[in-house]
Amino acid sequence: MKYKKVMQGALVLTGFAFGASALAATPSASMLGNSCAGCHGPNGNTQGPATPGIAGISAEYFVDVMLDYKADERPGTIMNRIAKGYSDEEIELMAGYFSEQKYIPLTQEFDASVVRLGDMLHDRSCEKCHEDGGKFAEDSAILAGQPKPYLKWSLADFREGVREMPKKMKRRMDEVHKAKGDDGLNALVEYYASQGK
Ligand code: HEC
Ligand code: HEC
Questions:
Q1: How far is CA 139 from CA 29, 162, 181, 182, in A?
Q2: Closest ligand by atom to 55 CA
């Protein structure tokens, strides 16, 4: 009787040890995500100053972005190198993880005098794809509360053609630029920056 009990315990222990090593061989989504926290913040919520937040990101957009970085089809200072370190399966896993995290817009300084203009331009030209004032995106990017330097670089890369933007977005961007010039784009950035918690 006593012997049997010990055997059972040993079996349970072996089972546990096996489970643990199997886990180590296939890292979980949150373990993978942890290696991004140093730059993207806890659970993908940016602490600034310039790295974008990736919590609450659309899973579809996340996968597109990571594969584009991997294939050098989207420019970046650091992400092309980082993305190459992950298999497509690991990218899928992380897409699930980050898309499920609650997004917390970054609190930062902004120029209050142009926020209304930015709000108006956003409603007219950007809301269709960057919904709820840019706080939500079905299959594009969250803009509200992203760090200002990141927003500015992204807009500059788009305008200079370094980074490709969807055709319909280009039409909207040109529309803003035609009406208000660089001041219009600047007002949009200040509007998104004003949406911190
Ligand atoms: C050393 C800092 C650093 C680390 C570590 C890092 N990133 Fe990034 N990430 C950046 C920067 C900076 C950008 C902006 C693009 C660039 O300059 O490369 C970025 C951009 C991104 C974007 C694009 C966001 C958008 O709104 O389009 C995604 C997605 C992303 N990173 C995912 C990840 C994932 C997933 C990991 C972990 C596996 C990770 N990053 C690790 C610095 C980092
Ligand atoms: C037809 C849909 C559409 C419209 C309209 C649109 N966008 Fe976008 N936007 C997208 C998509 C899709 C992406 C992701 C592009 C990619 O894959 O890199 C994006 C990306 C962005 C990014 C980069 C975000 C990041 O995290 O890197 C910024 C900034 C941006 N849009 C600003 C705007 C502004 C400002 C307007 C209005 C003038 C606008 N967009 C209108 C679809 C749209």
A1: 21, 21, 27, 26
A2: 1
Give the CA count within 13 Å in the CB-facing half-sphere of 55.
Answer: 20
| Separation between Cα atoms, residue 111 and residue 94, nearest integer Å | 35
- In sequence order, which residues have a C-beta less than 8 Å from that of residue 99 and are 6 or more positions away? 56, 57, 58, 59, 62
30's tokens: 């949150």
Q: How far does residue 68's CA lie from ligand 1's centre (Å)? A: 12
User: Do residues 120 and 112 make contact, with C-beta atoms less than 8 angstroms apart?
Assistant: no
Counting ligand 1 atoms within 8 A of each CB, the residue from 32, 47, 54, 58 with the most, and so the one to mutate, is 54
Can you read off the two tokens belonging to residue 193? 């920056």
159-183 residue pLDDT tens: 999 999 999 999 999 999 999 999 9
The answer to whether residues 149 and 160 touch, using CB atoms and an 8 Å cutoff, is no
pLDDT digits (tens, 9 = 90+) for 82-119: 999 999 999 999 999 999 999 999 999 999 999 999 99
Non-local (6+) Cβ contacts of 73 within 8 A are: none
